[in-house]
Amino acid sequence: MTGAATGDRLYQLAVTGFALVIPGLLALIAIAIGVAAWPAFSTAGLSFITSSEWNVQAGKFGAAPAIYGTLVSSFIALALATPLAVGVAIFLSEIAPKWLRQPVAFLVDLLAAIPSVVYGLWGIFFLVPMLRDHVVPFLRDTLHLGGTPLFSGPAYGPSMLAAGVILAIMALPYISAVTREVLLAVPRSQRDAALALGATKWEMIRDAVVPYARSGIIGGVILGLGRALGETMAVTMVIGNRPEISASLLAPGYTMASLIANEFTEATSDLHLSALMAVGAVLFVVTLIVNGIARWLVWRVASGPRA
Amino acid sequence: MSALRRRKAGNIVMLSLTYVASVLATLPLLFILFHLLQKGASTVSPDFFTHMPRPVGEAGGGMSNAIVGTLILIGIAGAIGLPVGIGAGLYLAEKRTGALAMTVRFLSDVLNGLPSIVLGIFAWQFLVRPFGNFSALAGGIALGAMMIPLVTRTTEEMIRLVPNSLREAALALGYPRWRTSLSVILRTALPGIVTGALVAIARIAGETAPLLFTAFGNQFWSTALREPIAALPLQIFAYAISPYDEWHAQAWAGALVLIVIVLVISLAARHVTRARFGSSTD
Amino acid sequence: MIQPVDEDAPERPRLATRELSAFFGRSRVVSNVTLGFRDQEVTAIIGPSGCGKSTLLRCLNRMHETVPGASATGIVTLDGTDIYAAGVDPIAVRRHVGMVFQRPTPFPTMSIRDNVTAGLKILGRHAPRGADAEDVVEGALRHAALWDEVKDRLGESAIALSGGQQQRLCIARALAIRPQVILLDEPTASLDPLSTQKVEELVYQLKQDIAVVIVTHNMQQAARVSDRTAFLLMGDLVETAPTNTLFTAPRDPRTEAYITGRFG
What we know:
The structure holds 3 protein chains of 3 kinds.
Chain A: H1 2-44, H2 47-50, E1 54-55, E2 60-61, H3 64-95, H4 98-110, H5 116-142, H6 160-184, H7 188-196, H8 201-230, H9 233-238, H10 256-263, H11 270-302
Antiparallel strand pairs in A: 1-2
Helix pairs in contact in A: 1-11, 3-6, 3-8, 3-10, 4-6, 6-8, 7-8, 8-11, 10-11
Chain B: H1 2-40, H2 46-50, H3 64-95, H4 99-113, H5 116-128, H6 136-161, H7 164-172, H8 177-205, H9 232-240, H10 245-279
Helix pairs in contact in B: 1-10, 3-4, 3-6, 3-8, 3-9, 4-6, 5-6, 6-8, 7-8, 8-10, 9-10
Chain C: E1 15-24, E2 27-37, E3 42-46, H1 53-59, E4 70-78, E5 81-82, H2 90-96, E6 97-100, H3 112-116, H4 118-121, H5 130-143, H6 147-150, H7 163-176, E7 181-185, H8 193-206, E8 211-215, H9 219-225, E9 228-233, E10 236-242, H10 243-248, H11 253-259
Parallel strand pairs in C: 3-8, 3-9, 6-7, 7-8
Antiparallel strand pairs in C: 1-2, 1-4, 4-5, 9-10
Helix pairs in contact in C: 5-7, 7-8
């Protein structure tokens, strides 16, 4: 009898211990990065996030270009990926014939399995040249967008646009998987109600299904945003890595993650290291907030309709 | 009637657009796989798996050190991620709504959403900086930390699928709680947990960012855990951004091998799940 | 042209079925039902659960076929036209034959007002606007006996309403597109007795203008609200008669067994 009780106690102790690893690990990460980042924050103050001057020799560390680049590349990614991902999800949950659903869902899900570095490799040797040689001329000459600041200046290849496109491809499976799930969670009665009013299938999707799943879809998009913000390798390989803010999407840029990836092993001064840790800390906090919002929105749909 | 015709036309247009979206969404995958085969297949030979990298200018050579390095890193990551993840998953499945369980569940999601590069600098700060050198151990631990939330989540979900009646039956037979959990519940949920573990391994096998400042990469043969170690993704990265065509070819070959490894693990994961559902119908 | 199908009734019914059968895959759930539904009349369809009464109802506005694998054979006429004929659009049919479901199905992201006009908004630029739209909303809500309860909060979410109010809102939504027939599929199954009573009073009001078909497993309800009752058993139409007759002097022994509570 005592044997069983001891066993139970040991077991309970073990699993609780394992569970506690997770908060412990996160606390350790937050403290380690916070402490390491502190010198940079206290030296640069608010200019750390507002200044555009990132000069290692001069000891000036303004992360604004990297923060800007992270936001812009992720925004391009969402703008491209969201309509496609929602389209695929609608196709898979409402329209596709049964035999087609599994294979298409499998192919789209597979996009999430491709390692980031492979996306980067493909980006360097295929996507970047294709954008430069075909897409940019098309945008400029056929659509006459060359005059707008967004598409002005020389197009060497590696650019904010390339980073945005590759991030779009990478975020797509996440957005579409969540969207598909929340669409499937819409009760059949909502669809019936719309059809009984004489709605066509599209009107049913537009007026009943999508509004019902709205906040879950937004949650999926924000989850995709979380992925895009923290993505490192593929972006580092195609964005051009130049710490400047340019209005043109064809100009090279930088992101927080690629800044860390590029400079970390070469950082020699303590302040430089601390500045990179500080970039990591900003990235940590931003993704934390973004993911928190996403989880909350998806959870809201999962827990049924609301006002 | 014209209003109806217009609405029906809109219906067809919009529904067709979802077809277009689906084609567009699957195109990148097909392109990537096509390019990998086109550019990588010719370089992948038995030599690729058994030979070391050669210097610039010499054709041929392989990535044997990187392939072994990746396997070692996966091994270390699994040794950390699996027990912690499964243990935490057991805890969450049994406690469900306790305050600590809710917190752990939430923080597990947070950890899962953490950019992998952040885990990299964290591991550097703790496991590289104090010792003064990059190491396989630091890389494996960073990857292990990535695995924890993935394994925790699937373990909890799979254990919750086990009917409570099974637990009660075992307890009624006089099994102590811990043996019920480990030899009845965990065993029943095992195929699902194996699937989750394989999915997690597939995800970390291709990770590069956390290894940049931990495992670091190594041009030479090394299996020492306290030394820098080569890894397939790191090697692909180094070769891809190099200016040499021979190395580009090696990068494509490495990418092809990496993706085959990842796909094989992913398919194995699906197979385990299917086998489970196949056998649980009766 | 279709002949009148109900021997008891002299004038042609608004909606009628002839030899109607419904299937899920290969299994037949409604068999050769021939039945008519007239204006200013409430027809109740009763029977034990699983007898096919909801499926029969869903065939009357071609909602049945929206379930994967479902199909129907036979004829259903609306004003003499077969709604299953080639070239007839189910979308157009559903605008003439409205439907309300077992559980209230308000659109949760829309306000009360928008729920009422949801069926009209689908029409896009043909939808009523401004004052016209307000008239439609008021008319439909009054018709559904809900106006007085919600007139001060039309902009609020429909989810804030009680279950009974939600169900009447769904009836108002169905009425707003001015159907000729309204189908009620166990409309009070999920409501409390007080809300049930309100909906039943409403059913009585509705038949002043249009044909009403109500499916119910509650025989007392059928007796209270309907003029004619049809008894369905395992997909077969056993008997149809004026409600009083059916409940007091059923012709078929199976009907008698059911209404006296010997099964179901």
